[in-house]
């Protein structure tokens, strides 16, 4: 019997992996796909050369490929669940899209290298998840190597991220003596290279456990288990699903992606604990994922790097209803109608036509620029989803034009590319040259290349004295107006005319803000399609 719409929605899990480069995201992705039975495709993920590519290589690769899909979506099934794993560009291709992708998931897996603990990029991505209270499952990877003390790592997550970390399993042995994990939710062990179901034990001093450990290690292991079990955060096993769903608590698994160990735990955790596709807030009402009419929101635009093909792929998360190929939709922002004749599913670098899709699924919609980031598509209803934001750029550059005759052309090109989400564009009030802002340096390379190739406007970038940017607002218009008047040399307008404050450092920003009572400064700005 075909599944009902509600059943299709309920069996979906849409998630992303957040990690610092080299923590093992690619390896884990590959192993997740193997579990999902997508074996023939697993090789596609490890485009190692690709991931480590230099930026100039990236451009060449993009051109060769025609349309490129940097952020891809991998869909696989396991235990009757459909998983959509949204890839978050993390190496050289780290960009604002990486952040925006996190607004299109319902959960995240945080991969931590057991030897390194929480690293910069993990922290940044975690903060984005926190803005939306996205539930996070933690995977401490590389347990087959020398790692830091597991208790230390737990402590670092709790203190460093202000996140309650609840170990669900505990490693038995370390580094080359790593033998498996002890399940803290029921007395059971899982051994490396053994049956995935594990074996029932009587407790941490069961001979089956002790046999896996050297004598001194066994005593240490028992002490750790006793300690971990005594800290229950007031809940049974220390795990509280509600707190997890609200993003305050993370279940922690230890494993080794390379040895394919602990990966099943993760999938089971996503099935059991992670939420199905969420209801989505629109300005007018909240849209339930199981409503019958199709709605969707565009969170990313991928342009074609080949100037001969000016088409774009808009990535849309289905928010409700059923998408059927060929159906007509309305782009709410423009009121225009758009037929979804060739919606696509992506798999790493491959794609196929999507005949149907449900809430939580992500489809690519080829178009010639009619779709923008933040756009809402419906079957006609006039609703606008909120929640696809712009993120304060982390790199600011002034655009330097070689040929002053092309200033007007540059302006319109920059506006077009900013609308597409390639970079953000800011116009200083003091009349000085346009400033572009990005999250990842690659975005600047893409901008430069596209300005030259598609618009015939070669540019260079100059550093500015500004390093930090925040959107500013005030409850009283007068407060904002007075501030802007008094700080014209440090205020600019974004593409929509919203005022931003520029500062040379975080210290300077705070100094200015402390002297401006009533002024609010924000790191993110909602885009309303
Ligand atoms: P990333 O996508 O997060 O950047 O990480 P990736 O999976 O590429 O892994 C980074 C390195 O860590 C790779 O080694 C990979 O083999 C290794 N690795 C991943 N998971 C584990 C694990 O569980 N245990 C151990 N010991 N190593 C792991 P590399 O030498 O950089 O690449 P390669 O030669 O293996 O391809």
Description:
The chain is of the alpha+beta class and 529 residues long. The protein is 28% helix and 30% strand. The protein contains 16 helices and 33 strands. The strands form 8 sheets. Strands 28-25-27-26-30-31-29-32 form an 8-stranded antiparallel β-sheet. The two termini are 38 Å apart. Bound molecules: guanosine-5',3'-tetraphosphate. The site of guanosine-5',3'-tetraphosphate has 16 residues, from helix 2.
What does the secondary structure layout of this molecule look like, with pairings?
Elements: H1 5-10, E1 12-19, H2 25-35, H3 39-42, H4 48-51, H5 55-65, E2 73-78, E3 81-86, H6 96-101, E4 107-113, H7 120-131, E5 136-141, H8 150-161, E6 164-167, E7 169-172, E8 180-183, E9 188-191, E10 199-200, H9 207-210, H10 215-230, H11 241-245, E11 249-254, H12 263-272, E12 280-281, E13 286-287, E14 295-303, E15 312-320, E16 322-324, E17 328-331, E18 336-339, E19 344-347, E20 350-353, E21 356-358, E22 362-367, E23 376-378, E24 388-391, E25 395-401, H13 407-420, E26 424-428, E27 435-438, H14 442-455, E28 459-463, E29 468-474, H15 477-486, E30 491-493, E31 499-503, H16 506-514, E32 519-522, E33 524-527
Parallel strand pairs: 1-3, 1-4, 4-5, 5-11, 6-11
Antiparallel strand pairs: 2-3, 7-8, 8-9, 9-10, 12-13, 14-15, 14-23, 15-22, 16-21, 17-18, 17-23, 19-20, 24-33, 25-27, 25-28, 26-27, 26-30, 29-31, 29-32, 30-31
Bound molecules: guanosine-5',3'-tetraphosphate.
